Amino acid sequence: MPEEKQNISHSLILQDRKKLNLSGVCDVNSFDEGEIVVETVMGEITIRGEELHIAGFNRETGDMSVEGRVCAFAYTSDGKKNNSLFGRIFR
After folding, report:
1. How remote is the C-alpha of 79 from its chain's centroid?
2. Which candidate, 29, 26, 27, 34, places its Cα nearest to that of 9?
3. What's phi and psi for 86, nearest 5 deg?
4. What pLDDT does 8 receive?
5. How many C-beta atoms surround the C-beta of residue 9 within 10 A?
6. The pLDDT of residue 14
7. Which residues, other chains included, contact 79 with Cβ-Cβ below 8 Å and sequence gap of 6+?
8. φ and ψ at residue 85, rounded to 5 degrees
9. Which pTM value belongs to this model?
10. Rounded mean pLDDT for each run of 10 residues along the chain, 91 residues in total
11. Distance of alpha carbon 64 from alpha carbon 51, whole angstroms
């Protein structure tokens, strides 16, 4: 993770299950209408729902907005990268 991203805090605000605001976002790993996978300074987070779309993402500030019906979100890693060959293959 670049040094400048390590000092950014991470927050997650869900409004009426229709709008999710995140800070501390480093990258968007994958997305479709049912699932968005995002890399944050606190690890990877998976957002599941219906008719999801990314309303905005500012890579410089790490702020992101998601709109749609949010059903669940879960952190799927603790922010520690496994850079071994097997870690990359079985990710």
Report:
1. 11
2. 26
3. -65, -35
4. 75
5. 9
6. 96
7. 40, 41, 42, 43
8. -60, -45
9. 0.77
10. 61 96 95 96 94 96 96 79 52 51
11. 17
